[in-house]
Amino acid sequence: MLDEAEPMEEPPRAAAAPARTLVVTLPYQGDAAATLGLAAYSYAHVYEAFRPLFERCGQVVALTHAESRLDYALQRAAAGGRAVAHLAFLPPHRLYVSARAANVAFPLWEFPDLPDDDFDDNPRNNWVRVANALSAIVCTSAFTRDAFVRAGVRAPVYVVPIPIAAPYFSLPPWRPGARTRLETPAHVFPAAGTPAPRQQGSLVRLAGRARGVFDRAVQPRLSPWLDRRFGEVGRAARQIWLARPSPLPPPDAGVELSGVVFTALVNPSDERKNWRDLISAYLVALRDVEDATLVVKLVVSPSLCAIELRTMLAHYHALGLTHRCRLVFLPAYLSDDQVLQLTAASTFALSATRAEGACLPVRDFLAAGRPAVAPRHSALVDYLDDEVGFVVASHPEPTYWPHDPGRHLKTTWHRLVWQSLHDQIRASYRLATDDPEGYARLAARGRERMRDHASAPRVLPRLRAVFEGLDHAGAAVR
Length: 478
Description:
By secondary structure, the chain is of the alpha/beta class. The chain has 3 domains: about 20-165 and about 455-470, Rossmann fold; about 165-195 and about 250-455, Glycogen Phosphorylase B (Rossmann fold, 3-Layer(aba) Sandwich), CATH 3.40.50.2000; about 200-245. The protein is about 40% helix and about 15% strand. The chain contains 15 helices and 17 strands. It has helices at about 30-35, 40-55, 65-80, 125-130, 140-150, 165-170, 200-220, 225-240, 275-285, 300-320, 335-345, 360-365, 420-435, 435-455, 455-470, and strands at about 20-25, 60-65, 85-90, 100-105, 135-140, 155-160, 180, 185-190, 255-260, 260-265, 290-300, 325-330, 350, 370-375, 390, 395-400, 410-415. The strands form 4 sheets. The protein has a 7-stranded mixed beta sheet, with helices on both faces. Strands 2-1-3-4-5-6 form a 6-stranded parallel beta sheet, with helices on both faces. The protein has a two-stranded antiparallel ribbon with strand order 7-9. Helix 5 links the parallel strand 5 and strand 6 (about 155-160). Helix 7 (about 200-220) crosses helix 10 (about 300-320) and helix 9 (about 275-285) crosses helix 13 (about 420-435).
């Protein structure tokens, strides 16, 4: 076993060729910034976290467009007599099952149930059918594993957590009085001398009242087909309205972070992230505290950034809340080094999520010794409790599969208790300011838990067990 405190070294270049070739299919390759927030974008990022470990298990070939390229890549890989395996980092309804190798899926799934019918007249949407055609399934949490087992999937199901990058474990502990400047565009509120654009907030409230009238008086009289068409028109109109030139001033060139810093990484278009509750709970909880800051890092591609940022800023102004605590929006893409710098400047990770298949930001912050304020449900159950953070109360409520255009209520996610989110934000702030030793103990326990749960030396044996299982089952094509 390698020392957990040190990153694992790559195999020397002169080493013999690995006995196995791993052909990986992905939704995207290339510019990481350009894919943020797009459908299934997280699969490519999870693959990048696994890639150093895959390279210790075999030769890796990564490609997109599996339907036209996968079989050829597998045939070439097997020509040299090596074992081959296909690793699919794609949602099951988008992956391609090859007859030329063992097919192993890495599904990221945040709901307690699996789609088990051919909705939208598409048999690929039946995840149970797709899963039963696979050689193995690798889940990144016990929660996801249980969903596949409950659904009656016959393929072997493994739990292999996503490995956390070694630099997070090496970040120095947070210290009161620390100051960090991030050189990235930032919208900071309250902005000194800049009045809030009240007209935009009024338009948002007017649109909300119009939607209420439509929901009560018009929608019940529409056929399902016409209701969906009205919805499409409404969404298109919203994008056109938000795409108009913004009346807001340009962002600051950078931002200095100090005091107690809460950080949330959110994709604004993802309803699971529940960022509206997150912002309102923070502003109400700490509105009179000058040394508190909430950093909202937008996880979105440059092509969508303007629309999503305007949505968030319009909502913020529509709240009409005056406050002395700071609220910072970071819309631009951050490099890995900048994300580490932001993590080091933070005191807590903050999440109001409704459902998670992994919740990578919370895991990374815990590994960095930054406790979390977050609910304990879905994949978060694997590692979050009041020994490493502040748990926000939540309850199941009905919802739909993210890829179901009919939005039928087939599963559940979690509705947060807003008051609990508010109270835990206040409690975490008090701990950081009034009990530094208590904060340090909480932070140390979080780092140690994540080292044991998802450091690379802990993950690697689990990953190797997957490939050994393929060999023992005779599933690999040689």
